[in-house]
């Protein structure tokens, strides 16, 4: 039996088991183990598990697994949390470039607040009652009234498994505008298969969708999630979005050990 050290981090309530895997001691193909570690009754409890690994060219590599144990697409809140974790491990100081599943990310950390550069967005699909875009992860966005009482779980689940997404699925965001550049957002997350308190790639997608559909003319947008507020800013260039930054607090909650 061997002991593995883990840290628990959260970014606006999206929580992660974080492991320093620079020595490759964690069995990352063990889907059942990852799902068990993320289980809130039988494990540590988290929306996902993140490994910090060595990178040949950059400061580190981020490997992200959803709570169901499968490797996920990009996680924005997880990306912010791993920057705080890398600082804690003294892998970085205040600025970094790291590898993730969707490419390189630059980030800056100051006073526990992480500003993370997200991938450029070249395409935003607009339909009569929803929008779709990929900010590193796929996001379906629907603007609704009365978001407080909205049935995010059941409506989100039926959209996630329905046409045109089916097996591959999507994350599903419900949004209500509060003022010129503030939006309330609730997200059903693929791979967690439940509503989470916050989704970073979802917040990024909503900010861009709101601007693209002319709900705001501001290119810095505040997203009020159930776990706190995120800020997204971006540059615009004939329907494509560059220099996209996701900003918010990333916090270490506790550390511990588990047996393999
Ligand atoms: N919580 C994440 C989103 C993670 C990706 C997602 N669940 C998927 O694989 O579809 C975030 O903060 O972006």
From TrEMBL:
It is found in: Cytoplasm. Its main location: cytoplasm. Transmembrane segments: none annotated. GO terms for cellular component: cytosol. GO terms for molecular function: diaminopimelate epimerase activity. It comes from the Bacteria. The record marks 139, 189 as: Could be important to modulate the pK values of the two catalytic cysteine residues. Pfam families: DAP_epimerase (PF01678). Signal peptide: none annotated. GO terms for biological process: lysine biosynthetic process via diaminopimelate. Its EC number is 5.1.1.7. Keywords: Amino-acid biosynthesis, Cytoplasm, Isomerase, Lysine biosynthesis. Pathway: Amino-acid biosynthesis; L-lysine biosynthesis via DAP pathway; DL-2,6-diaminopimelate from LL-2,6-diaminopimelate: step 1/1. SUPFAM superfamilies: Diaminopimelate epimerase-like. Substrate binds at residues 14, 66, 76-77, 171, 189-190, 200-201. Catalyzes the stereoinversion of LL-2,6-diaminopimelate (L,L-DAP) to meso-diaminopimelate (meso-DAP), a precursor of L-lysine and an essential component of the bacterial peptidoglycan. Homodimer. This is Diaminopimelate epimerase. It comes from Aureibaculum algae. The gene is dapF.
């Amino acid at each position: 039996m061997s002991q593995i050290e883990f840290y628990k981090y959260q970014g606006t309530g999206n929580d992660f088991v974080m492991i320093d895997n620079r020595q490759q001691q964690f069995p990352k193909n063990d889907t059942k183990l990852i799902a068990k570690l993320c289980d809130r009754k039988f494990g540590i409890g988290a929306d996902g598990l993140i490994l910090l690994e060595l990178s040949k060219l950059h400061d580190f590599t981020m490997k992200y697994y959803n709570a169901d144990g499968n490797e996920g697409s990009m996680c924005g809140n997880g990306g912010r949390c791993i920057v705080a974790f890398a600082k804690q491990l003294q892998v970085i100081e205040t600025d970094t470039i790291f590898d993730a599943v969707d490419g390189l990310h630059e980030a800056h950390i100051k006073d526990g607040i992480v500003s993370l550069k997200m991938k450029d967005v070249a395409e935003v699909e607009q339909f009569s009652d929803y929008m779709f875009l990929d900010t590193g992860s796929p996001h379906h966005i629907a603007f609704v009234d009365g978001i407080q009482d909205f049935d995010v779980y059941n409506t989100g689940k039926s959209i996630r498994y329905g046409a045109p997404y089916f097996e591959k699925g999507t994350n599903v965001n419900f949004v209500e505008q509060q003022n010129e550049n503030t939006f309330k957002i609730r997200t059903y997350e693929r791979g967690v298969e439940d509503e989470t308190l916050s989704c970073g790639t979802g917040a990024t997608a909503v900010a861009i969708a709101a601007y693209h559909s002319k709900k705001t003319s501001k290119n810095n947008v505040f997203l009020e999630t159930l776990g706190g507020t995120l800020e997204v800013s971006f540059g615009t260039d004939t329907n494509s979005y560059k220099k996209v930054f996701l900003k918010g607090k990333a916090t270490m909650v506790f550390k511990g050990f588990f047996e393999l």
